[in-house]
UniProtKB/TrEMBL annotation:
Superkingdom, taxonomy of origin: Bacteria
Annotated ranges, domain Nitroreductase: 177-367
Organism: Stenotrophomonas humi
GO molecular function, one term: oxidoreductase activity
Pfam families: Nitroreductase
Record's protein name: Dehydrogenase
PANTHER family for this protein: NITROREDUCTASE MJ1384-RELATED
């Protein structure tokens, strides 16, 4: 049988920490650890525990070259287990799914550590609010009590800091001061299509396209982008927008137009929103959300297997989020961004594979509610009197 190793693979010694009860009762904490090796591969959703024989076999097989294995080796339990778990690949029909998943990752030119971080940091069905509550890490006081004090808010060097002049009287400064993450949306007040369209025009639309060749187009947008590639796509999750049926949409940045995508029934959009936001109900009422989903393959087309490329893509998402925040603030709307999302569930709803393209953050926008039920960070009372 011919085999090849999967493309991106990280082997990690993982220590199972156990606390000895007897020692705790004596007032001491002793950590007894058992080390198991886990394999994290970029084409697999879950880690696989590997023993010494499996690690040895993995180290003997190339990720690039197909190798013929002797009958003895291919029948060994190590080989069978590695093939069944997808860490080793074969051309046999029963392993075809893993082969095609690995091939899909190869074609996108990920840098190995980034591919593994990306794949294994995606959430599915996580309830981040429930987790925060069960760990007692909800309020600032909870954090202080359970985690101790954080590193100082400001890095200060010894010496005399020379003050800089302050300017705070422009309309732009006033607008910046009003930007506060909104956690209280008016669930009954629809967002006018006009305001959503303005937000998309300012935040996501391409101002121009430059055609280096008919099949090689670069966009100009209101945000910077690593390599000028603008890989981040916008998908709308619409719950309550005047003149727009609830559902999922793709935004076309050159046409400034929406395409309706296959969507759950209108009555189930709020469940999808809440799952997407990992249970953060304070955001889930937002009448419109923008899923920011980079096409990694576009960035990595130029930055092949590049150690900075994933970082650049995440910067792009951050730039878009800040621009969208400011556009929403200027329009008198509340806005939020969150990275605490269930990417696997979101990508499935949008038909994305997560590796060529996948969700990274969700931005939401809408009218603020009349009352602040969930705390917002507005110490200067620019939003809430
Ligand atoms: C990358 C990123 C992720 C965030 N994720 C969450 C989140 O999961 N839940 C939440 O309530 N706020 C989230 N926020 C909002 C921050 O909590 C908020 O920006 C911060 O508390 C400062 O408040 P301000 O935006 O009102 O100035 C996120 C912000 C950023 C930039």
């Amino acid at each position: 049988m011919r085999v090849r190793r999967c493309m991106h693979l990280l082997l990690e010694p993982s220590e199972q920490i156990s606390f000895g009860i007897a020692a705790i009762l004596r007032g001491r904490v002793e950590v007894g650890g058992e080390v198991t090796w886990v394999a994290l591969a970029a084409h697999l959703e879950r880690a696989v525990v590997v023993d010494a024989a499996e690690r040895a076999l993995l180290s003997e097989v190339s990720a690039y070259r197909w190798q013929e294995l002797s009958q003895d080796v291919s029948r060994s339990s190590a080989c069978v287990k590695l093939l069944e778990s997808g860490l080793l690949l074969s051309e046999q029909v029963e392993h075809a799914e893993y082969l095609s998943r690995d091939q899909a990752v190869r074609e996108v030119h990920w840098w190995s550590p980034a591919a593994i971080v990306h794949r294994h940091s995606r959430w599915q069905g996580v309830d981040s609010v429930g987790d925060m509550r069960s760990q007692g890490l909800v309020t600032a006081n909870d954090l202080r009590r359970n985690l101790g004090p954080p590193p100082s808010a400001v890095q200060e060097y010894e010496g005399v800091y020379a003050p800089l002049p302050r300017q705070t009287d422009s309309a732009f400064d006033a607008m910046l001061a009003r930007r506060t993450t909104c956690r209280n949306f008016d669930r009954d007040r629809a967002l006018p299509l006009q305001l959503l369209a303005q937000l998309m025009q300012r935040g996501m639309m391409a101002q121009a396209g430059f055609e280096a060749a008919p099949d090689t187009v670069f966009l100009k947008k209101n945000v910077p982008s690593g390599g000028g590639l603008h890989p981040v796509e916008a998908y709308l999750l619409v719950q309550n927008v005047e003149g727009l049926a609830p559902g999922l949409y793709h935004y076309h940045p050159l046409e400034h137009a929406l395409l309706a995508l296959p969507s759950p029934p209108a009555g189930e959009m709020s469940r999808l929103a809440c799952t997407a936001l990992s249970g953060q109900d304070w955001f889930a009422d937002a009448p419109a959300m923008i899923v920011l989903a980079p096409r990694f393959e576009r960035c990595f087309w130029k930055y092949r297997n590049h150690s900075k490329a994933y970082r650049a893509v995440l910067f792009d998402v951050g730039h878009l989020s800040q621009l969208l925040y400011l556009c929403a603030t200027e329009a008198g709307l509340g806005a939020f961004v969150t990275a605490a999302i269930n990417e696997v569930d979101v990508d499935r709803a949008l038909g994305l594979d997560g590796i060529q393209q996948g969700s990274v953050a969700i931005f939401g926008v809408g009218w603020r509610a009349g009352r602040q039920e969930t705390t917002e960070f507005d110490p200067a009372h620019r939003v809430w009197a």
